[in-house]
Amino acid sequence: MEKTIRSVFIGEVAELPQKLGKTVIVGNKEIAVFKTEKGDIRAIENRCPHKGGVLAEGILSGEYVFCPMHDWKISVKDGKVQAPDVGCVQSYPVEVKGDQVYILIRE
Amino acid sequence: MLKQKLVLIGNGMAGVRAIEEVLKINPDGFEITIFGTEPYPNYNRIQLSKVLQGGTSVSDITLNEWEWYEDNKIKFYPGESVITINTKTQSVSTDKGRKESYDQLIIATGSNPFMLPLPGADKEGVKAFRNIKDCEEMIEYSKRFKKAAVIGGGLLGLEAARGLLNLGMEVDVIHIYDYLMERQLDRTAGKLLQAELEKQGMNFLLQKNTAEITGRKQVTGLKFTDGSKIKADLVVMAVGIKPNVALAQEAGIPVNRGIIVNDYLETEIPNVFAVGECAEHRGIAYGLVAPLYQQGQVLAKRLCGIQDKGYQGSVLSTQLKVSGVDVFSAGKINEDEGTKVYKMYDDWNGVYKKVLIENGKIAGAVLFGDTKDGNKLFDFIKKGALIEEYLESSQCVNSEVNLVASMADEELICGCNGVTKGSIVEAIKANGLTTVDQVKGCTNASRSCGGCKSLVSDLLACTLGDQYQADQKEAICSCTTLSREEVLAEIRDKGLTHIREVMNVLEWKTDGCSKCKPALNYYLGMVNPLKYQDEREARYVNERMHANIQKDGTYSVVPRMYGGVTTSEDLRKIADVADKYKVGMIKVTGGQRIDLLGVYKEDLPKIWAELDMPSGSAYSKGLRTVKTCVGENYCRFGTQDSIGMGIRLERKFEGLNTPHKVKMAVSACPRNCAESGIKDVGVVGVEGAWEMYVGGNGGTHLREADLLFKFKSGDELVEMIGAFLQYYRETAKYLERTSAWVERLGIDHIREVLSDELMVTEYNHRIEEALSVVQDPWKEAINNKNLLRDLYQNVKIPVETK
Ligand code: SRM
Ligand SMILES: Cc1cc2nc3c(=O)[nH]c(=O)nc-3n(C[C@H](O)[C@H](O)[C@H](O)COP(=O)(O)OP(=O)(O)OC[C@H]3O[C@@H](n4cnc5c(N)ncnc54)[C@H](O)[C@@H]3O)c2cc1C
Ligand code: SF4
Ligand code: FES
């Protein structure tokens, strides 16, 4: 089956909180969108692989978010869980056009 | 130059220490091979007691990691025993069929536990306490069985018994004498020790002679010579050790109780040495590491061809490694016609001190309850010092730091490793050492039994002066090597104003983590409450959202109810809100107020607005609740207005940021219905006065609060609570509850600091400053559009959008 990539507009750069996450709900998908200290925008699935913690509410440090439930450390860039824990969450490419932010979702 | 082949049999504490000493003197002189029956790198046997008592794992007690063997090019055969020594061909062979020749051979095979040859001693469940395997087996047993019996009331037996108690077993200790540790203590100290251990839950059967171990395959109990019996699923024999000499004996090396060695650790066979518990020197086979390490040093010098006066034997000192028990003894312990004693016995506090004097010289000592003088006395005993010297030195010294300051340079700090005060001070100065761990790494002090850690710490304190903080070694987190104290000092000195600046200036290794960011946020705010801009993105979710997150991502709402008092109006509002937003549950909390659980993030601000009540801060590192009892207005026992005082305190201190949460309670009589005895600050009203208790905790580590002061007036009480809280704010580590903090600083110390009126005024001044900027966080959020958008609103994109 052919896969398509959908580009979803989620808002303007200025509407995203600095150094924090935001919960973005696209249909039935929940995505955690982060604006890092450097100003990069990252998007990963809003569900910790451990016990489903909401990653959007975690503490963001550089390119990592610490899950608010039990403190797993997860890369917001590629969704990889950091040692000593293991696992991975889906990460989504982000496109910024001017001041508009798009997330690319494969379906 | 051709290297000499040096072979060591026995990868234990004495043998490996001798090798370490050899490597220190001549790192390239030998081709070294080590055989060890146990399948581990060299570990600290002494600490097995700690492993059994919990809190220390087997991996924590390794002394030389696998890399050490590699780095020093040592051929190491773990799990391999030497079975024969051929002194003619100068070679050894092992149970794995390996053969190795030597130029020099060290036998360091240690001892074997002595097992009483009782009927039934071969049953399952009869153990010794000697190595990692024994330790692991006992831990396994404790999971399946309830009753343990330890035969032997000496050092080892008592440490084993304490461990088994910690593992949840019931423990009987059987001892043949009428008091404990008769080899190291006199009757008085032995009895004091028994009383203390009984308090800890040990049961003693003294003057009992075991006749038989009963049971079929597995032990079920013990039978004594007087006909009595007890039940036991596990029997630990700790009645002594015997030098492990079989291998040497078979090889024709002369042995008595141990392998006979001279002052240079030479056996009677050329090129064969023995060291450690298996060796017998001038008729003595030692069973403690301090003498064994001294032997190791002498042996190393001998092997490396360095002149030395040889090993002269050792005076022993003993300490028991059971928490909550301080006993020390050294030299002679029981008086006879030739001795005089200097004695001090404080029955009430359980402190006992006895110094034995022979011809005016200190010949021995027994201490119980307060062992601070132990090291000093031990040194005096070895020097044969006059009793006057001790008496003079013990006058006027009250603080521990003074005590080490007054020690002579050649006095021993670490008995196990023979490290003197002088060499530690030198190492601190030469290498810029600042922590106990660094001193350990550099000098070996405190590397074995750990008993001298506090002395080393005192020594750092008096060498470094103000720069030293006893527990500074603890880095804030792995993003930095700096401790709380260092970071705070930098923040103050350099006037750092925000988290990023701290991380940049102090060269953080990362962009921070969930440990250091909230901690830095707290410290910065504490140092500069008026100017600091709280960084909400550095706060843990609950404190950022001002609500506790639940496992399903919803939140809870706990409005403030000052002193646990509410009104029908407030209750109605709560009920209405609960209905309107269909909250999951309405629950009365353990803190005398109401919790609305299962609230959706986006409903939080609406609920707060409709409640129009202040936040209860049930999520904060700050003041939580002030519980109160009914008090004098209603209760027939009440002596004070506890409700009024509780409300006053809650109104005054609400919104304050503290290192960890702070809970208070006010009861109006010692019946203590508000549970003031387990609160960070607990107040108890008594006739005409208020008692102030601090450092209580009802949580993970239950702790009874200590009485700090008693006041006639409520104003004085409130002022002292202010000073106490500010002192805590300024000196506690982030996430350190008052219970741990009080324990760390000591209640006496805190009382001393807060006895200074000037300090109390200053602390109050600073806490008022911090309180002056407090705002209700719920009001703040509902009135700030950006906050509402950034924190509480989700972005929703319907599926159709393309
Ligand atoms: C709501 C409440 C239970 C209840 O329904 O009664 C509660 C709920 C929680 N407590 Fe508690 N504690 C509650 C009273 C207590 C008490 C009793 C008391 O205060 O009288 C204690 C023991 C007393 C003490 O602290 O000394 C208590 C000791 C803890 C601890 C252990 C603290 C410690 O230092 O050992 C934690 C964990 C922590 O703080 O790190 C904790 C943590 C928690 C957290 C916040 C766990 C978390 O981080 O998610 C719970 C939030 C549950 C939720 O989903 O909302 N809770 N907790 C109580 C709120 C009281 C209030 O009105 O504010
Ligand atoms: C629980 C416990 C608590 C203690 N507490 C203290 C204390 O607080 N203070 C103190 O000073 N001392 C204490 N000791 C005593 C101290 O541990 C010993 O004195 C010290 O370990 C002896 O060192 P060693 O090298 O002579 O023997 P060990 O450390 O026993 O080493 C001998 C090693 O040789 C191995 N071996 C034996 N035969 C062979 C062979 N044929 N081939 C190869 N390998 C062989 C053994 O398996 C063993 O690993 C304690 C001991 C125990 C068990
Ligand atoms: S005791 Fe406290 S932390 Fe533990 S489950 Fe109950 S509410 Fe949660
Ligand atoms: S759910 Fe994320 S760490 Fe447990």
Keywords for this entry:
heterodimer; A: 107 residues; mainly beta; four-stranded antiparallel β-sheet; globular; B: 802 residues; alpha/beta; five-stranded parallel β-sheet; 27 helices; 37 strands; elongated; binds siroheme; binds flavin-adenine dinucleotide; binds iron/sulfur cluster; binds FE2/S2 (inorganic) cluster
How do the helices and strands line up, and which of them pair or pack?
The complex is a heterodimer of chains A (about 110) and B (about 800).
Chain A lengths: L4 E8 L7 E7 L2 E7 L5 E5 L13 E3 L2 E3 L6 E3 L15 E2 L1 E4 L2 E7 L1
Antiparallel strand pairs in A: 1-10, 2-3, 3-4, 4-8, 5-6, 6-7, 9-10
Chain B lengths: L3 E6 L3 H13 L4 E7 L11 H6 L12 H6 L3 E4 L3 E5 L4 E4 L4 E3 L2 E4 L3 E3 L12 E2 L4 H13 L2 E5 L3 H12 L3 E6 L11 H13 L3 E4 L3 E6 L3 E6 L4 E3 L2 E4 L3 E3 L2 H5 L8 E3 L10 E3 L4 E3 L7 H15 L13 E3 L7 E5 L7 E8 L4 E8 L2 E8 L5 H10 L3 H8 L5 H6 L6 E3 L4 E2 H11 L4 H8 L9 H12 L19 H11 L4 H7 L10 H12 L13 H5 L2 E2 L5 E3 L10 H13 L4 E4 L5 E6 L4 H8 L11 E6 L13 H12 L8 E6 L13 E6 L2 E6 L11 E6 L2 H18 L6 H8 L1 H7 L3 H16 L4 H6 L2 H8 L2 E3 L5
Parallel strand pairs in B: 1-2, 1-7, 2-3, 7-19, 9-16, 10-11, 10-16, 11-12, 18-20, 32-33, 33-34
Antiparallel strand pairs in B: 4-5, 5-6, 8-17, 13-14, 14-15, 21-22, 22-25, 23-24, 24-25, 26-27, 28-29, 29-31, 30-31, 34-35, 35-36
Helix pairs in contact in B: 1-8, 12-14, 22-25
The structure holds siroheme, flavin-adenine dinucleotide, iron/sulfur cluster and FE2/S2 (inorganic) cluster (FES).
The site of FE2/S2 (inorganic) cluster has 10 residues of chain A, from loops.
How would you describe this protein?
- The complex is a heterodimer of chains A (107) and B (802).
- By secondary structure, chain A is mainly beta.
- In chain A, the strands form three sheets. In chain A, strands 2-3-4-8 form a four-stranded antiparallel β-sheet, with no helix packed on it. Chain A has a three-stranded antiparallel β-sheet with strand order 1-10-9, with no helix packed on it. In chain A, strands 5-6-7 form a three-stranded antiparallel β-sheet, with no helix packed on it.
- In chain A, strand 6 and strand 7 form a beta hairpin.
- The radius of gyration of chain A is 13 Å and the shape is globular.
- With 802 residues, chain B is of the alpha/beta class.
- Chain B has 27 helices and 37 strands.
- In chain B, strand 4 and strand 5 form a beta hairpin.
- The model of chain B has no long low-confidence stretch (mean pLDDT 92).
- Strand 2 of chain A pairs parallel with strand 37 of chain B.
- The complex binds siroheme (SRM), flavin-adenine dinucleotide, iron/sulfur cluster (SF4) and FE2/S2 (inorganic) cluster.
- FE2/S2 (inorganic) cluster (FES) binds next to loops of chain A.
